[in-house]
Amino acid sequence: MATATPALTGTSASADTATTSATPGGWRRARPWAMPLIGLGVSLAFLWPYLVMLLGAFRPSSDVVQTPASVLPRVWKWTTFPEVLGDERFLAWLRTSVVVALASTAIVVVVAIPAAYFTARFRFRGRMAFLFLVLVTQMFSPTSLVVGIYREFFTVNLVNTYLALILTNAAFNLAFAIWILHGFFASIPRELEEASELDGCGRVGTLWRVMLPLTLPGLVTATIFTFIAAWNEYVVALTLMLDDSRKPLTVGINSYVTGYEQNWDQLFGASLIAIVPVVILFALIEKHLVGGLTSGAVK
Amino acid sequence: MALLWLAPALLLILGVVVWPAVELVRASLARFSITGLNKGSAGLDNYRNVLANESLGTVLANTVVWVVAVVALTILISLGLAQFLTKDFWGRRFVRWAVIVPWAASLVITARLFSLIYSYYYGTLNAVLLKLHLVHTPVDFLGNDRWIMPSMVAVGVFVSIPFTAYVFVAGLNAIPTDVYEAARIDGASPWKIWRLITLPLLRPAILVATVLNMIYVFNSFPIIYTLNESNPGFAHDTTITFMYKLAFKSAEKDVGQSAAAGLFNVCLILVAVLVYLRVSRWREEES
Lengths: 299, 287
Description:
Oligomer: heterodimer
CATH topology of the domain at 58-238 in chain B: MetI-like fold
Number of domains of chain A: 2
Largest interface: A-B, 104 and 97 residues
Shape of chain B: globular
Strand order of the largest sheet of chain B: 1-2
Radius of gyration of chain A: 25 Å
Mean pLDDT of chain B: 88
CATH superfamily of the largest domain in chain A: MetI-like
Low-confidence stretches of chain B: none
CATH superfamily of the domain at 58-238 in chain B: MetI-like
CATH architecture of the domain at 58-238 in chain B: Orthogonal Bundle
CATH class of the domain at 58-238 in chain B: Mainly Alpha
Largest sheet of chain B: 2 strands, antiparallel
Helix content of chain B: over 70%
Strand content of chain A: under 5%
Largest sheet of chain A: none
Low-confidence stretches of chain A: 1-21
Strand content of chain B: under 5%
Order of helices and strands of chain A: HHHHHHHHHHHHHHH
Radius of gyration of chain B: 23 Å
Structural class of chain B: mainly alpha
Number of strands of chain B: 2
């Protein structure tokens, strides 16, 4: 792959002068177009299953399950997305997913900020015990506790409600948010706060006007992570949401392909509609993602 | 005072994490009818039944293979990928977005997608392999005992790479560039630079990525549950799907036994993480 074209060498003196001195001259000339090519290969390695999915949404289900299999549709079908978007069941699942993900995220943000700020700033009795409790919940997954979760919500009569899903998602994503924000709060110099308090801001005012803007990258990372985790949650919803119209997308769309009906086109169309908002969210915070992970988790 | 700031978090943790954990312990000590009615105390019978379950050995072996294979492959591939993603080249932004997609897609959607891609009759993978003459007859990826675990591991690695690679990208970005300059002036080869500078400085990131991946992969449910759906019994289950099937899918629907298995799971992952942390710290002190 690394044979150089003379025509391209003129433009090759680009950003990465750092590595070139130690590498052979042929690679230096090939690099400007070889790297994007490898990049394309890497992208395809991660995208190909979803391209199969996209093609699957544009062919009738009968063409998906026909032997021999073919990569490209033999028959094209353009009505899948309107069909899915017009499907009452799909809209109900979508509503559950949106409500549950938004509400869980809001709860996590409101609950994690004071806890992270307080534990990062003050030494008090039980601080270590609290942080340890948070760390342990990070290791518990709703999956291994699912029997207990079901029994709890059965006892308080919340099976089949949004509230049960919202509380579960919020509780199990809280630890990550507290840890990330804790790291950010701890890294802010204390003098900044003292100055703000001298200027007459109360504790809450300081937190709101001085500290929060400085922790924005961490806050964005924690928020998006929670939203995505709640949006993609499966096991608890599978167990708690028995009523078809109250299922979230992750559980609901499985009823497009069962032993009784096989609508692969609709399953794929609905899946793509579920994936696209998350990919956009992720792409928007891609830069923060790296910064947020460094300060919160890696250091 | 402290309570005011911590109360909401405490309430949420106690109410939705600790309470179910207590319920799980209580359920593991009780006897249940097939419809889930509590029929009184069972003592330690549920634990005994789990330990005596004839599939337990297979399930534990599957779990070890699954976690070790997925985490090791993920870390290795992500190290290379992160190295590539921190280079400057045209289109890097797009490549980074593409790498995010399997992370953004819900696991159950990706698993469902792969159950079709792997399919013996309609699978795209078999179609491509046949066309390239790499195989003569379709491979039964999800039905053949030899193929199912590697097939599931491949999907597990595929969905774990994005997060891991991003942790490593963050770690690589945190390494100051002048360290590299100095090494290069001293005439160190690229491989030597990577082994003696990059790798040691990336240690904290590798540690975090390994621990988090161990937890995620161990607890991973949708991939195995979906890809292994058509196979009866517990031959290809890990402890997580084993536990779920005991309560909700098996002939007995034994809530008590499933709760006991759930507690084993919690202990297993705690011990695994502690052992890993212990071993890696021990090596650090030695070197």
